[in-house]
Amino acid sequence: MKKILIEGGAKLLGEVTVSGAKNSVLPLIAATLLAEGVSCIDDSPWLSDVDCMCRVLESLGASTCFDNGTLTVNTRNLSSSEPPGELVRKMRASFIVMGPLLARTGRVCMSLPGGCAIGARPIDLHLKGFEAMGARISIDHGFIEASTPHLFGSRIYLDFPSVGATENIMMAASLADGLTIIENAAMEPEIIDLANLLNVMGAHIRGAGTNTVRIEGVEKLQPARHTVIPDRIEAGSFLAMAAATGGELIVNNVLAEHLQPVTAKLQEAGCFMEIGYDSIHILGPDKLEPLDVKTLPYPGFPTDMQAQFMAMLACCRGASTITETVFENRFMHADELMKMGADIEIDGNCAIVNGVSRLKGAQVNATDLRAGAAMVIAAQMAKGVTEIGCIEHIERGYEDFVTKLEKIGTRVKLVDV
Ligand code: UD1
What we know:
UDP-n-acetylglucosamine1-carboxyvinyl-transferase, Chain; binds uridine-diphosphate-N-acetylglucosamine
């Protein structure tokens, strides 16, 4: 077991380069299943979630190789459409292989997914989409089986713009017979990234990034090469860190338009920002102004930045409110922040963060991936040393995190316990 120790009080200074987006690369890897042959994904981050997705593909007969940021996937010899339960339960995102497997092999059987403990996170919208395209679905003893001799295009309205459901349906529809229209689709940049890869593979997808995605099914897709977009949540986490410590950072490999809701809020809190071609320069004030933040599907404020903002606002000049509307149980980091002296009141899906003068170091846990980043931010604002446990959550989504933190002035140590 490993822990991260951070001695607070240092102002962050320097440059950091963001890795490829975790939430893009996972569906991109799944998409390679749609074609027979060798696909390459460049700028892929090496993360435990990526490793897990590679193992899911290997369990199906594919081979994978990661070399210097390029992930090569060979799907020529697929031999199974039943990913093992222990891998699927470990990572919720592995459910994203369901659409491609159903489309390519006509049958898929897998365990109900696992993942971060941030709410019930059902998969009804994914299944509703597959059923509308002609799949028979059965759920028995925690396993889901979907099968169909062939998928056909359909009009699918999502009750909520689910990112995973939009991606899963888009992939299945790429090989379906006829036109699929996804209404109230998710509009996240990762959806556009996936559509771009699928279109290079020969799919006909229009409207990705809007709330209506049209997919004209094709008979066959070809393997392809694709570069992953930069990770907007990693970038946002470093920006929040600079803001929280009154530091000055240049965050490189950023598509600033993907970060608008985050940068707008940081400016409102008193940060100076300069947007470059593929970088953002941020200068944090001595003390942040309070904010009202409400998470929403893209282009709203990302739920994946909520925990980091809660930490960042813990010492601001007054009371902030944070409303979580995407997940129903995503405030577990509040208890950990309170162990460090934060003053937070939770009422349902709303948190009031009363700024305190200083946090103090404590023993805390990364209760999920983004909560882990929040603890790292809080630790840097705190007096004394903070010991962060359960860091396997952080390793799921932040590539070379400790090395990057050290480079920008964090007094950080990774220790075995
Ligand atoms: C993706 C991201 C995750 C992010 C989330 C919301 C990946 C790998 N993960 O997760 O980091 O926090 O988007 O931006 O890309 N829902 C249903 N039924 C469904 C599917 C979802 O009710 O069938 C609900 C969920 O319970 C949740 C909300 O919709 O309350 C959003 O979930 P969704 O957009 O699907 O998130 P993920 O794709 O799992």
